[in-house]
Amino acid sequence: MATMEESRTDNNSGAHQNKPEGQLIKSPEGVYRLLRRLQSKHTPLKLHFDSVADYYTSMVLAVNYKEGYFLLDEVTPKWGDELMAKAIPFSFDSFHDGCKISAAHMQASGRAVKEGSPIYKIPFPTELQFLQRRQFYRAPIRMSLEIPVRLGVKVPPVKRDEYDNIIPQNPTWAHEGLLRDLSAQGCQIEVPGDLQEALPKNTEYTSCHIIFPNGHLIDLGIAVRHVGYDENRDISSLGCQFINMNPKLDRQISFVVTELQRDNARASSGNAISAPASELFTPPAANKEKGKDGKKDETGKNQERNEPNPALPEKISIAEAHTKAVGAVRRLVMQLREKNPLSIKEIWEVCDLLLQALEQDRQELILYTRIRTIGNYLYEHSVSVAVLLVDQTQHNVTNPKSRDKDYLRNLMFAGLCHDLGKGLIPERIIGKGGDLTEQEAKVMHKHSLLTREILSRQQGTPEIALLVATQNCERLDGSGHPEHLKSISISPVGKLAAVIDVFDAMTNGRSYKAGLPHAVAYKRLMGMQQQLELAAVQQLIKRQGLFPIGSLVSFENGDLGFVKRQNEDHQPQVVRLVYNKQSNQAIPMRDVDLNKTPSLGKLIGPDDPARYQLSNDLLLDEL
């Protein structure tokens, strides 16, 4: 079992400071797993040598748990090789998928040359600092994706596809270049030529235009904090920090970071994630925003149709259906925040996709809903609740509407939209790690009424969506909100939605905490009989199984694996083995059919992934 020590402070500094923030991972197996994460994802390390002002870059090439060391690639710039070869003490910071991983007080114990380049042997650090926070994630831009950046000219705000029309014919730009990475706090821009002397550090620009392939423009202020120069490419790299930010710009940048993260996953994973390209990175098609005849209705809005789509192919990609659903909810929330018309038609379209995905391969779709991405909780939670609502309903033989396709489609819509109002709640409340104050709770509780109000203004919204929007927050004893309804006043679908909403929230982590093991969540749900309907809880447990898809289970021989598929009795059948708790080591991942692999021994029971720093996103990796 990995040992963790968590120390929360207000200090945002690196690992070499005295007051660490986040978790201190001290066990060898914990250190091993984090280093392996950096290796497998090719995450750059930012090195800082003692008594040397500059920073250097390297990457983890290999990690040896048995002997307690890891190998670092050559250090760039190249003069860092001399510092490493002399065993000058160093620390490193790395930023991976919203997590900061840092270590200090390390020295190289050996140097070798492989394929003409130096590599270094580094003993395991005594501890690694692990801090999970969204703003640390730096989303790289793949080389084939060009996102121009222009500094120095202020122009009026513009709409999509209008950028080139309003720029003067001969503008005076201070600098023009390409975006190379982006985070919530800043970016890196590559500009032709050597700007080390021409562009002093801390130069500020009140206007920086980031222009995306689809014509979308973000205009914000930046300060240049670092200027580097690559002689071979004749390119200057500008490390920039955003200035004069406001909540609207924060949301725009956060959205782009998420889209870049998905773009990189899509580009690097082959067919592991069959995700369509983001609209941001796709050139606009003619009349994309209009109907087939290019006309709008008399209200000035595009006509929205919520009829089922008869043109879906016989077989679809389950992963793509899930990705499109998450993207549709995300866009809806962004439109809501920007006070733009809501693309309700897209939600109806993904309802059809998800219904077909459930019919085609229920277990694979459930699997995708159990794997979460940092920063996407609201959108992925909405999709999960929608899928579970329909899954539970259509297999409940006592429900007369269990085979009513129109009812199930409306129910899917209700689930996808049930938390829309949270998009208008301040992030400091939504993302707060501790208990909410009384005033913060009052603000949070408004989200269900906001959702109902938003949906009631949309043409074609089914009544069940308005019902689920509020009643998923009600409790049998009247302790819920917004109307403090009691058992007799809450509809059956409202009671089911409440159970599913609580279950999904319990079992899936946020940026500030890990999710509960499913067995623990079941136990807590069973203990909430004053608030949640017992029959709905029992129905959920029966349908999802004691060892749900995506959960971690333990075997007699010490192996741990994530449940990938279940048999007809909702028991684990196919499991992906990832770890052995007797040796406290990761093992080569493999999928096993429990009916054909007696060597594992008896299935002992559920286990907690957080104890071993395991994540069920390992289920997405290609074997």
From TrEMBL:
Bias-annotated ranges (Basic and acidic residues): 287-307
CDD domains per record: HDc
Pfam families assigned to the protein according to its UniProt record, in alphabetical order: HD_5 (PF13487), PilZ (PF07238), PilZN (PF07317)
Region: Disordered, residue numbers: 1-23, 267-315
GO molecular function, a single term: phosphoric diester hydrolase activity
InterPro entries associated with the record: HD/PDEase_dom, HD_GYP_dom, PilZ_domain, Split_barrel_FMN-bd, T3SS_YcgR_PilZN
Key words of the record: Bacterial flagellum, c-di-GMP, Nucleotide-binding
Record-annotated HD-GYP domain positions: 354-557
UniProt cross-references to PANTHER family, sorted A to Z: CYCLIC DI-GMP PHOSPHODIESTERASE PA4108, CYCLIC DI-GMP PHOSPHODIESTERASE PA4108-RELATED
Name this protein carries in UniProt: HD-GYP domain, c-di-GMP phosphodiesterase class II (Or its inactivated variant)
The species this protein was found in: Marinospirillum alkaliphilum DSM 21637
